[in-house]
Amino acid sequence: MPELPEVETSRRGIEPHIVGSKIVGVTIRNRKLRWPVSKAVDKNLHSNHVTSVGRRAKYLLINTPTGSAILHLGMSGSVYIVDHGTAAGIHDHVDIDFANGKTLRFRDPRRFGSLHWSRDPLRHKLLTKLGPEPLGDEFDAAYLWQASRGRRVSVKQFIMNANVVVGVGNIYASEALFLASINPKTAAGRISEVRYIKLVAAIQDVLGKAIAAGGTTLRDFYGGDGEAGYFQQQLEAYGRDGEPCRRCNTPITAITQGQRSTYYCKQCQR
Questions:
Q1: Of 229, 225, 248, 262, which is closest to residue 4 (Cα–Cα)?
Q2: Is 3 one of the annotated active-site residues of the chain?
Q3: Is 36 a catalytic residue?
Q4: What percent of the chain shows pLDDT beyond 90?
Q5: Of 12, 185, 209, 260, which one is the catalytic site residue?
Q6: Most buried among 70, 129, 136, 246, by the most CB within 10 A?
């Protein structure tokens, strides 16, 4: 699944091609995505122009003077830029054509993505209850420590909760906890504020490096090439079950938490 670094990579990739350009056509080949695509998307985008491309959590915001298209990539979706008239594949569900001769194309083989229109996107029902951005000013150790008080859920599941903080997906949660030397099974409410200082720094470090590397899941998201991301080469814990820890040589352990795989070092992470 595309996580925050992959979505941010997508945002940065498509932004220079579409900002400031007029939308001259909208083609929706399949409206049956996770939720049906409303005709309000076509109506409000056509003849409008893009003022910016934003991101909130794992949602892309294609902003115009009158509102925003809200796009979620789902489990397998991607956005990329093609020239007008480029033949569409069976999984290419949405094209947005621009006056500059470029087309923004949304591909989603599993159709778990979604596309919406909102005049006030940050008040849209999908976004209103989301926690702070992990790289923003509102996310710090004091906030995370206070939010964790009394919580018995594991710290890994806690930081993966989008109502607590957005965008800390499974891979990045394992990596951040390894970097902060925190056992992923520890109850969130039992961790001290001092250790949350380390964890916040680790989350921001891991996500920052992943964004700089173009993500983990895909190398060039807007290009749609499906290659593994460069950050995959930097993983310390995730996917390394049985391999020696790079700190202490203890074999990395794999467990399941909340139906997701977790990787950690029993020796380093206490």
A1: 229
A2: yes
A3: no
A4: 86
A5: 260
A6: 70
